[in-house]
Structure prediction request, 159 residues.
Amino acid sequence: MRNITLLLSIFVLAASGLIFSAFRQADPLEESITFVRRNLASYYDGNAENRLIRKYELNFTNTGFCRYKRYFHNGKTEYFAFNLSKFTDLDYYGSTSSGVLYLRTRGDDVIVQTHNDRSGDVDSMANFMILPIKNIEAEQLNELRARLTMTCQHLAMKK
Prediction:
């Protein structure tokens, strides 16, 4: 009898947890960041700079920080980062098969660092970050712009 009672109580607790989690509203900020992360990762053109770049990392944190790091074959490393709350607009130059995406910020809000460069390590600021993109349509760019703008607004409200 105790085993049945124990199993019944475990079942009731698990069922109530599922019911309560089903009615939990998704966080719009987290949803937007996940959308941006997934889309930019799928449209990123790693072959555009394949001769020069050994590997790259493109990350979007749940706190709204965008980080892009490129590792070159010659040992040089470039790092770009900015908070999505500083995002203003994006521009795309190219065709639907390939091009470059400019993520623009309000001011000099993009951190730019180079390491192991022949001219020396450089720390500077910029007002845009460039990503090579492939196979993207105008509707997808518009949706990406809308989600980035929405993310920017949500991050501004959290401050």
